[in-house]
């Protein structure tokens, strides 16, 4: 099944290059580019098992502000985008810089930082036992990075309608929204993001009634009131380091950790999409979660891309040329 997904997605991407990106963009100018990034991700993950989720999140946060242009990587002071409140806890910058340094040694001035981020997210999914797929490349790095541009990032406290609208504004569908939310199949979150949901849920205070009662006490034990807001817990209960669709079952059954994940149940359209991946009697009779996730990742990777002369290839990822 995994091989079939790989071949189908590869044929799709080779046949249609959206946004002037192409699979194998560096095949002649830097033929080892993708393998260099892959090794950097694998080595980092071997040292720190949280890295796959961190790199996946980094790609999402990069693409949702100014497009997939590496703007989040810039580190030039307190007004840089990476300092935005919406980017709290985002990491993986060191892995990207390590890969960039190796690429600059192999083929100077060829591979963009924004492509490294996209490739690293792809390789992170594979490290977490997710599908392997091809990523169109050819992005250029942006020349703007400002924390105010991140003010409209999706937030855990947004209503389901606002979340859908924010994804739609980026050219993504309700299906993309559900599948990209399912990227929470790997990774952790901080109790900071749970406080209101557990102890001051609006309206009326108290706990979010959408939380399964059997799960509520577990969450409160991990994140006690007035406890350590930096304590972390898996976003996908019972399967926090493995890529699978357990996250969708958790969401449907009231075991969602994040409020924004749980809200997929509040909307008929998104709830129906979640159900479509869980209710099929056999894998062959329903949609493929893995293949559809890959398609949504590729769609996200096309947001606001800069190509050709509309951008630059940075020498180091944290600074403009």
Structure description:
- It is built from 13 helices and 4 strands.
- The protein is mostly helical and 321 residues long.
- The protein is globular, with a radius of gyration of 19 Å.
Defining traits:
single chain; two-stranded antiparallel ribbon; mainly alpha; 321 residues
Q: What would you say about this model in short?
A:
This protein is about 40% helix and about 5% strand.
Write the layout of secondary structure elements.
Blueprint: H1 2-15, E1 22-23, H2 33-47, H3 51-63, H4 93-106, H5 113-127, E2 136-137, H6 160-169, H7 174-181, E3 188-190, H8 195-199, H9 213-222, E4 232-234, H10 246-252, H11 259-262, H12 268-276, H13 289-300
Antiparallel strand pairs: 1-2, 3-4
- Sheet of most strands: 2 strands, antiparallel
Strand content: under 5%
Radius of gyration based on Cα positions? 19 Å
For the biggest β-sheet, the strand order reads 1-2
Shape: globular
Instruction: Provide the residue-averaged pLDDT.
Output: 93
Into which percent range does the helicity of residues fall?
40-55%
Uncertain stretches of 5 or more adjacent residues? 7-19
- H/E topology pattern: HEHHHHEHHEHHEHHHH
Q: Separation of termini?
A: 44 Å
> Which structural class is indicated by helix and strand composition?
mainly alpha
Q: Enumerate how many helices there are, as a single number.
A: 13
**Total beta-strand segments:** 4
